Amino acid sequence: MALEIALRTSVAPAKTRVAFRAETLGLPLTYASSTKLRARPSLAEELAEFREFGRTTRKLTTSFRAPDQETRQVPTFVNEFWTAKQRQAHSLHEISYRACFKPQLPRFFIERLTQPGDAVYDPFMGRGTTLLEAALLDRVPLGCDVNPLSGVLTQPRLHPPFLEDVAARLRQIDFDQADEFPEELLVFYHPNTLRQIVSLRQYLLARRKAGSLDSIDEWIRLVALNRLTGHSAGFFSVYTLPPNQAVSVKSQKKINVQRKQKPPARDVPALILKKTRILLRDCDPPARAGLARVASRALLLTKTATHTPEIPANSLSLVVTSPPFLNVVDYATDNWLRCWFCGIGANSVRLTVPRKIEDWQAAMTEVFRELYRVLKPGGHVAFEVGEVHAGKTRLEEAALPCGLHAGFEPLLVLINDQKFTKTANCWGVDNMAKGTNTNRIVLFRKR
Q1: Would strands 71-79 and 58-65 be described as parallel, antiparallel, or unpaired?
Q2: Less Cβ around it within 10 Å: N or C end of the chain?
């Protein structure tokens, strides 16, 4: 099912579409003779000397087989380049999406490889971390994802509403007008809570069908999606597997039996307002003004990343992304309940989740070819891959020939080495055991 995502400013009419315009930042050509500009070191030099969190960078070498079958090498830098010890990320980032990276990752590259006004792109945008961080840093955000939920999760946070407007809209919605009652969902919800959820779903779908879904409705939908299932009283559901992706009905029945639990009554509009207050905590006037400067020029696409004619050639300065990892994460299964709430057929969304390394490389090479087209000469791709198969498969070694084959120059590999967060441990992921133990980013440059 196609999902139309309209991007607009807070003052634009509801149906206004905003076209992307590539712009360059005008820089002065002359400087005062008394001012000497200090050249910034290359990223490789900066990584080698990085000491911000008290650790010394280890320099290694990553070898890979190029398309011509020759063995090539790139320098590899290992350190804790971003950490939980840093300042907390902006409150707008505080929504859950499995296998998403921290906002500090795109920030690290955006700050070092772009200037305000530059365009930053994520072809696998997920929950929109790269786009939101780019917008908060006064860069123009662009994103693409075949999963229509990505746009639903991203677009409203580029245009955050005011708390009082959300409260007023919630008072206008009748949360006791459910025309259906999917009893199978009672394993997650108290009957009164399920009635409120279904009523809200019907309201949102009716507004979308009538073409009257506005930015306040889209925000409420975003927050409701993020409260559908979880592990605390802040969610609509009884305790279920975090972080906020629904298990199957059969699995939830087992959880309920094991924990001897029954779904408690939750107040849906009250929880939406509570989460809204949290998300808007850092939305002060300067933050809102900064988002407004760039959000009207944003572009969100719901399609495959291999063919994006909507993005002009040679228009982007940086790509920061994390592609699917060899079937490690089943996004379609994780998001079945979210798709139901949005009226999206979960099985109709064709996600690129290759099972074999050679299939993954073929898919990523096609993506790299399109990234080469849209990037400016001198632009960069920061391609985060991580470790899979208990650390036995290092996708950076597989990604390097993909970028090289598309015409990119491989520059380096950055490995951000730190312990798992609580969220990762909730999924039963231990260090060096399963999933991603480190952020492993391959950096390419367009010649």
Answers
A1: antiparallel
A2: C
Q: What is the torsional sign of CA 40, 42, 48, 53?
A: positive
337 residue type, one letter = L
Helices H, strands E: what count in the chain?
15, 11
Give CA–CA dist 101/114, Å, rounded: 20
Distance CA(443)–CA(432), nearest Å, equals 23
C-beta pairs of 284-292 under 8 Å, 24+ apart in sequence: 287/90, 287/136, 288/160, 290/135, 290/136, 290/138, 291/135, 291/136, 291/158, 291/159, 291/160, 292/9, 292/10
Inter-residue contact 427 to 435 (CB < 8 Å): yes
Across residues 238-252, what is the average pLDDT?
A: 83
Backbone angles phi, psi at 33, to 5 degrees: -60, -25
Identify whether the C-beta of residue 123 lies closer than 8 Å to the C-beta of residue 304.
Answer: no
Residue 205: CB atoms within 10 A of its CB come to 15
Does the pLDDT value for residue 324 go beyond 90? no
Reported as type and span, the H/E element at residue 77 is strand 71-79
Classify 201 as helix, strand or coil.
Answer: helix
Of 310, 431, 321, the C-alpha closest to 368 is: 321
How many Cβ atoms from other residues are within 10 Å of residue 146's Cβ? 17
Q: What is the pTM of this model?
A: 0.85
**Looking at the predicted structure, is the pLDDT value of residue 29 above 60?**
no
* Strand spans (E) along 349-421: 375-384, 387-388, 393-394, 409-416
Tokens 């891959």: give the residue.
385
CA dist 415 and 440 (Å) reads 5
Query: If you average pLDDT over residues 182-200, what whole number do you get?
Result: 98
